[in-house]
Structures
1.
Amino acid sequence: MAANDGEEDATVSLVDVLEEDEELENEASAVLGGSDSEKCSYPEGYVKRQALYACNTCTPKGGEPAGICLACSYKCHEGHDLFELYTKRNFRCDCGNDKFGEMECKLFADKENVNSGNKYSHNFFGLYCTCDRPYPDPEDEVPDEMIQCIVCEDWFHGRHLGCVVPDCVELQEMICQSCMNKTPFLWNYAAHIEVPSITKVSPCKGEEDVKVEVENDEEEKIKNENPKSPVDVKVQVNGTSACKRKHQEETEGSSEEGSCSGCRLREMKASGRSQTLQGAMFWPSAWRIKLCTCADCKILYADAGVSFLMDEMDTVLAYENKGKSTEQAEQAGGAEGRDPLMSLTFNFSSEYNDMKTELKDYLQRFAAEGKVVTPEDIRHFFEQQQSRKRRRANAGQYYCS
């Protein structure tokens, strides 16, 4: 429909709404699927990776930083001002310990005073990046995405990373410049397997570009030096970066850990290739299998506090896939063993998903034929739904004599 000023109004179809709803459901399953919404995670110890929150109401800025699990965010901090921290590794729920004063956890009160193994940052006060700003930031008028460093797990604005953010960033892992400097041996790996980019920019600025030379045959060099690598790296040319192959294609094949006679890192250092020690590094999907796992390198990782880099299941992608798999398994398990209320909820959810799928298919036929959907068409759809529902109910009725 045209607007009075001659411009077309932005329209959103019901199919778009349903697809967006499905996407949000998938995201929620990915982030929360591995977390229990009913039980505090404290008894599990320092959980490998879980969804976490910080309560600005109970532990405001200026106090002690603290993190709470998903269940405690629902049961103990309902109605409070919470910061969603996404996921953190090796964290134990703080809810109700000394950081919360006299408040006790409603789900698991028997807790130690302090979780000495937890690591905290300004994220726990709702602040992020090198600019130490909240997200979303009401004073920031620049549209920019936030990207998480896999080492310090802080979130950064793309423009504050000191490098050009490659395309297809969702298939890559990023390590910020600060963490790269704290693990200097990773610069050697960066010279061989990092996703290269043509332009480096100064952190927190972006006006002055510092050109970094990248040889035209960079991709061929990587392939020749790593003939069995499952990673297909594309070099960014003239500011345009080609996407890598899809993640499932890249991760085909297996790691040949221990197959080399020497230390891969030592060989990389001896090659003479170097990387400009500036900006964050973006790594290709499945890059971790290229890390050397010899005895000396394992000590190196441990001393730097990054032993988790050797664990492919440490990645956020692995956590999200586990969450999706868990939810799918629960749905496939049916309602057997559930209490009546949960069974009712489960059945309603299943019927809703079925109806949503059928409605989407129904509307897509109109889109394929270029027809306009009228209120009468929608009424007809739901009348068909009711008719089928009545037939199913009648077919399943039992009568007592």
2.
Amino acid sequence: MASSLLLVGFIITFPCLVSVSLSETLLLPLTHSLSHAHPQFNSTHHLLRAASARSAARFRLRHRHQRHLPRQASLPLSPGSDYTLSLTLHSQAVSLYMDTGSDLVWVPCSPFTCILCDGKPKPAPVALNSSSSTSDVTCKSSACRAVHSPLSSSSDLCAMARCPLEDIEISDCAAYQCPQFYYAYGDGSLVGRLKKGIVTIPTSSPPLVLRNFTFGCAHTALGEPLGVAGFGRGPLSLPAQLAESSPQLGAQFSYCLVSHSFDADRVRRPSPLILGRYDVTEKSSEGKGGSDFAYTPMLDSPNSPHFYSVGLEGISVGRRFIPAPENLRRIDGRGDGGVVVDSGTTFTMLPSGLFGAVAAEFDRQLGRVNSRRARAVEDNTGLSPCYYVDGAGARVPDVEFRFAGGSGVAMPRGNYFYEFVDVDGGNKGRRVGCLMMMDGGDATEMGGGPGATLGNYQQQGFEVVYDLEGRRVGFARRQCASMWDSLRQG
């Protein structure tokens, strides 16, 4: 499906040797869903169409419900765009989406009904009914307030839990179960209850056991049969709960997503997920050492406190720098704006003005040599602009994201311009290239919320570090497949 030249170019252009010292660190493998994609996603067009449609759906849903549902979670996307990790809950292995855009760990619990889940994976739900080591979370707990809303008071939740008035008046609701919560997703949702239990990370050595771990137990879901391991900034996320028992593991995490270009053969190897801090010495082919992370500060939003939001100063296309609008540089007094760094979204979503300027400059520079637009491919994939790039070859301009604080992140070509063979229509067999960013719409019409999203496709080939103590996000180029081997040896 995808050209191996993209990956070869990456290896030749950015060689490096990474030596690591693992200290109080946990290394976990992330599995890409494309390696076991459903047969319905059997062509590049299908994968691109599904990923672009769901990227847009989630981004727009975040804005539509921003004022009404401040606890919006983000949606792990269709095959070709999501990453899973394995945990053990009460001796039962579960595979969960790793998602930095939500802050709750939830699992499907038996009996489990998933509506509109045909064609999606159907894992065995977790059986908790006979488990004596599982307990309910009460309506008086801080976890109950967190899953419903930071604004929910204890008395409101006690009333929702049908606690008698006389007990509410004397603050004696500790015996009443936390009410069910609702999470909405880009094309699905779930209803669940909070539980406390034992979670084990079996891939660590020795296995790490987390007792009194708070998680969501869902018996009903719409369009979402797999659970989610939320890595967001909220108190119920996996890093936050990990920090309670192992502070050295919860202070920081990072991942390095193996470049795939929608080719299943490229994601057979795991992408490393690193919990905790570790010492890394990066040596380039010229022998230079030192840390090469480009850091940018995290921004805080009262509307979406669980997002990892950063400021974007602008995007360079070739030699032209295109400034970002004000709502991407910072979060305003209403809590709107900023760019969400999200492992669950496939493609970067930009506001219409910035996307239009980037696409126009891209078209101006690339279109001079490859003037023929692949309009049919644009219609079939939801991506634009696309060009026929066979023949003389495409002179694709360089692209760099410049974040707040002066951090410049130069994107490898395969992260923003995807080349593949057109398999449909009258141009079957011709080589096509598409810009891998999307128009997120006009911010004034979206109703508030994040200004943009940095998707996981643009994060490929980078180690993305979330420094929770330093309140910053960093990016460093890596050969992620080789990095996994180096970390395992360390």
